[in-house]
Amino acid sequence: MHPLPFSPVPKDSMRLYLASTSPARLALLRAAGIEPVLINPDVDEKRVVAETEALRGEALEPRVLVELLARAKAEAAASALLAEPLDGLLLESLLLGGDSVFVLDDIIYGKPHTAEAARERWERQRGRTGTLYSGHWLIEVGGGTPGRAIGAVAVAEVTFADDLDDAELDAYIATGEPLFVAGAFTIDSLGAPFITSIVGDPSTVVGLSLPTLRRLVRGLGHEWPTLWNRPGAL
């Protein structure tokens, strides 16, 4: 467990712990006025999926897959956090786990990891529309035990430019950015100019739907503004 430093919490605020090391999710929350504590969930995603599919006897649908992994990450991080409480752990704190996949032609895509895989995916998806699924799992933590939990999946349709040429694609892949993001693209960085439209909440494509997170926070009986703890948000 490797949390990052954080500023003192205002008296009325709740702390949000984020079971992720994603720079994009962190930047998104910061822009929304929230400074989370990051925790590496340390989950073997392939094992979790394989065991669940073996139990069910079938491949997991995208919605089920992302919520399953979001929950696994959140529960792993909650267990680690409560086993080794951090300074500033409040009685009412929340912990969020998330996961995302991109679907095109009924094929589920996660992170490509290699330039060859990223290139192959972009050859298929440029000029076309695919679906980004983002799973969320929110757990109340504090008092030494996990509390209530709630989950949801957000969906967004993403359409890619049809005039993306090979030179642009080669240059984008050479940056390394598409190798480590679901679907091999971003909307909040270098990949944004290659996306022509999004149907749905744009933050879903970043990997964390802010409107969905707000609904989950309220679903557990808390108010969204209590998470604001960055300068300028209060």
Description:
With 234 residues, the chain is α/β, with parallel strands linked by helices. The protein has one domain: Alpha-Beta Complex (Maf protein). 33% of the residues lie in helices and 22% in strands. The chain contains 7 helices and 7 strands, in the order E-H-E-H-H-E-E-H-E-E-H-E-H-H. Strands 1, 2, 3, 4, 5, 6 and 7 form a 7-stranded mixed sheet that branches. Strand 3 and strand 4 form a beta hairpin. The radius of gyration is 18 Å and the shape is globular. The N terminus is likely disordered.
List keywords for this structure.
234 residues, alpha/beta, Maf protein, seven-stranded mixed β-sheet, 7 helices, 7 strands, disordered N terminus
Give the topology, please.
Layout: E1 16-19, H1 23-31, E2 37-38, H2 45-56, H3 62-83, E3 93-104, E4 107-109, H4 115-125, E5 129-141, E6 149-160, H5 166-174, E7 195-199, H6 202-206, H7 210-219
Parallel strand pairs: 1-2, 1-3
Antiparallel strand pairs: 3-4, 3-5, 5-6, 6-7
